[in-house]
């Protein structure tokens, strides 16, 4: 998550990602976690332009059985849900800070402003 500049946000994402990883390991095992982590790394590599990362990712996905595909899909879906939760919490913090700094005047983006 090097691209995230806000340390608090990055820490929260890493914390929840670690909990998800531990949960995957506890429920379906180390091998399943390794598959998820390999695909996560390849997806990141692809995003930042690493040569042939997309091809390697496609090959790994093609070689998964149905159970492994379900595990990967659930893991990535849960991680995206956790990211949305972190973003929602961040938004609430930002709005609270804006309101606190604007007090006693209405926030500039409010209807009363």
Distance, first to last CA: 37 Å
Helix content: over 70%
Count of beta strands: 0
Number of helices: 4
- Provide the structure class: mainly alpha
Q: Round the Cα radius of gyration to an integer and report it.
A: 19 Å
Biggest pleated sheet: none
pLDDT average, as an integer? Answer: 90
* Tally of individual domains: 1
Report strand %.
under 5%
Give the topology string: H per helix, E per strand: HHHH
Outline = elongated
Which regions contain 5 or more consecutive residues with pLDDT less than 50? Answer: none
Write up what this structure looks like.
With about 110 residues, this protein is mainly alpha-helical. The protein has one domain. Helix content is about 75%, strand content about 0%. Helix 1 packs antiparallel against helix 2. The longest helix is centred in the last third of the chain and has 37 residues, at about 65-100.
